[in-house]
Each structure stands twice: as C-alpha cells, then as structure tokens.
C-alpha cells in the first residue's frame, strides 16, 4: 500500500472507531530529574540542586481545575525520576482524579509492584517512556534507564489490571524499518495508548543542531500505527511552531493533540490557530472536539467537582476544599498569565 492509500485507510479506521478529538495536557509535577542524562531531554541541560523545581499541590490542583473547565483531558501526570515518594504521588493522583472526575494516567518513571499497590481505582494506567523503536537506540540515548525494567513494568501493570502506555519521540535516530519492532511491543505488551512526539532540538543537547523530523514522516508513522492497531489510542505532540500539523495528524489516525504550553495557547493567536486546524478537520470528519481553545469566560476562580464523575472520593474532595483559598489564588494567577499572553 502506498503512502496515500495508507493515509486514507488510517483515516477511515479512525472514523469508524472513535467519536472525539481530544486536547490533552500533561501536568508536570516537577522540573527535576535525578537521572538527567537522556540525550534529547531538556532536563539534562538544567543544573538544579537536589529536588528543586517541585510544584505545590495548590498549583497542580489549580491546573487540573483549569484543564477541566476548558474540557481538555489530563494526558498524564508527569515528572522526572526520583522526585516524589510513591505515597505522595498517590495523594496527587487522587486529588487530580477527583477534580477531573476520571482516573488518571501516570508518567513518573518505573514503579515497583509494591509501589503500584499504593494506588486504587484513581489510577487508570501507567506509561513506560521507551522513547524509540529499539532497545539498542534506547540504551544509547537513555544510559541510566533500563529497557528490561521498562518491559517488566508493563507486565506488572498488566498483572494488576492497569492500562499501559508508551511514549515515542520521532527524529532521534530511529530507522523507519524499526517500526516493526515497535508494533511487536504494542502487540506483545497489550499497549492501550501510544504518545508520539517529534524531536524538539534543545540547546545544550547533542540534538542542538538537528532538525525535527519531516511532517510527512511523522504522519506516515502515525498512519502505519493506526493501520496495525485500529483501536489503539494514539496521541500526538506538536510544538507551537508546528500547529499546522494538527489537521494532518488527526487525518492520519491521531486521537488527540498534546505538548504545548497551555498558558501560551489558550485564547491566544496560537490557540485560535489550533482551533482553526480542528474546525477545518471537523468538516471532513465525524469526530468532534468538545472543549475550547479560546473561550476565556470558561476559566473561573471557583472550585467545582464533576456532577457525574467516573471517580469520586469525598474525603479527598474535603481536603482539596480546605486549600480552596490557595488554589483559587493559583487559578487567578494562571488566568491572568493567559490574559496577558492574549
Ligand atoms: S528520565 Fe525523563 S526527565 Fe529524566 S532525563 Fe530522561 S527523559 Fe529527561
């Protein structure tokens, strides 16, 4: 099948199996990583002291309320390695799940079986950041992480009944032929969700002088993945200088778009531009985006929990309400940042 046929087929399969278009937001718990040596990663270029860059609970919960108000989705809670102990992460997961009314995905590194047992129905799934198609390239790029441990982590999550996701960055030296290997992993480890990103060549990394992968390559990888796995959730990351990729990625089989600073996007020219990509896509698709990228009146300094939640925990809601003044203060400051960038 040639590229255009693959694209058409991938579009048809996605239309058949999905109804919505999601805007996803990864909520960062911290800007610190104990490993800090993955060759493409921004964290490897910042020299923070131990455990610097941790966000407060109020700030995390304020962001979760705002994401909910705009009807976006929390993609996952994310952090570098060694930042919080698992008990603390479990408390944050419960809080965010109460605010959004949905169980949460995690992308906070490998957790042992006993650590995963801290979680209950507030956790939807875990993410193994395997970053690329093959073990060999992964080990070169992420010297302190272990491929085998990643795979064991997926097995343990499966055993405990959690969903499993992986993240892949395109343009970091992988060969297209290696996709076969990625597809084996998706099949063998019963992966429920793949998040694709494209390389953002950060200053100070070995990729500083590189360029991001070509848009047609990105689209082709997504469409091949969709053809192989018609029901897999596929999320695609775009950077603010590549907004025009959103429509083609959705055509190729992506279910949702992620990876942009939402303070910079919401209501701004960038947000309007992404909105117009989605609106144009909706003309050829039956899938719909039910949130907003632009309506600032949706963002308010009030704390409301969802009326018909999939997840609810009254004790945790009470704890959140005890901090309502501080959370509202953070919401207000995020809204004023958003208004400033408009
Ligand atoms: S483990 Fe994650 S946060 Fe840490 S350096 Fe690697 S990619 Fe960056």
From TrEMBL:
Annotated InterPro entries:
Aldolase_TIM (IPR013785), Biotin_synth/BioAB (IPR002684), Elp3/MiaA/NifB-like_rSAM (IPR006638), rSAM (IPR007197), rSAM_sf (IPR058240)
Q: What class of enzyme is it?
A: isomerase
What SMART domains would the database entry show? Elp3
Q: Which Gene3D superfamilies match?
A: Aldolase class I (3.20.20.70)
Q: Which GO terms describe its biological process?
A: biotin biosynthetic process
Which Pfam families has this protein been placed in?
A: Radical_SAM (PF04055)
State the Gene Ontology terms under molecular function. 2 iron, 2 sulfur cluster binding; 4 iron, 4 sulfur cluster binding; biotin synthase activity; isomerase activity; metal ion binding
- Give the E.C. number(s): 5.4.99.58
Q: What keywords is this UniProt entry annotated with?
A: 4Fe-4S, Iron, Iron-sulfur, Isomerase, Metal-binding, S-adenosyl-L-methionine
Q: Which PROSITE patterns match?
A: RADICAL_SAM (PS51918)
Where the record annotates domain Radical SAM core, the positions are: 13-239
Protein's name in the database: 3-methylornithine synthase
For this protein's source organism, the top of the classification is:
Archaea, Methanobacteriati, Methanobacteriota, Stenosarchaea group, Candidatus Methanofastidiosia
Q: Which gene encodes it?
A: pylB
């Amino acid at each position: 099948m040639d590229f255009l046929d693959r694209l058409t087929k991938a579009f048809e399969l996605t239309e058949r199996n999905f109804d919505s278009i999601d805007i996803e937001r990864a909520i960062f718990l911290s800007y610190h990583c104990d490993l800090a040596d993955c060759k493409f990663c921004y964290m490897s270029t910042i020299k923070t002291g131990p455990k610097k860059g941790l966000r407060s609970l109020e700030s995390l919960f304020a962001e979760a309320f705002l994401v909910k108000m705009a009807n976006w989705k929390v993609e996952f809670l994310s952090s570098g390695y060694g930042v919080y102990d698992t008990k603390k992460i479990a408390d944050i997961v419960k809080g965010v799940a109460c605010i959004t009314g949905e169980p949460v995905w995690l992308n906070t590194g490998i957790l042992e079986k006993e650590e995963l047992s801290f979680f209950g129905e507030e956790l939807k799934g875990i993410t193994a950041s395997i970053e690329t198609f093959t073990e060999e390239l992964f080990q070169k790029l992420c010297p302190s992480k272990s491929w085998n441990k990643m795979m064991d982590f997926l097995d343990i999550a499966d055993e405990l009944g959690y969903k499993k996701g992986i993240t892949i960055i395109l343009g970091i030296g992988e060969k297209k032929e290696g996709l076969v290997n990625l597809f084996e992993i998706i099949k063998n480890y019963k992966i429920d969700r793949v998040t694709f990103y494209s390389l953002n060549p950060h200053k100070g990394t070995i990729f500083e002088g590189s360029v991001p992968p070509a848009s047609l390559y990105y689209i082709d990888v997504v469409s091949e993945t969709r053809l192989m796995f018609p029901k897999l959730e596929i999320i695609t990351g775009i950077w603010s200088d590549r907004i025009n990729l959103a429509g083609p990625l959705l055509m190729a089989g992506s279910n949702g778009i992620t990876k942009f600073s939402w303070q910079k996007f919401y209501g701004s020219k960038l947000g309007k531009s992404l909105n117009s990509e989605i609106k144009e896509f909706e003309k050829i698709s039956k899938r719909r985006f039910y949130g907003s990228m632009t309506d600032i009146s949706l963002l308010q300094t009030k704390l409301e929990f969802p009326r018909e939640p999939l997840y609810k925990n009254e004790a945790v809601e009470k704890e959140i309400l005890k901090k309502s003044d501080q959370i509202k203060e953070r919401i207000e400051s995020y809204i004023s940042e958003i208004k400033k960038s408009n």
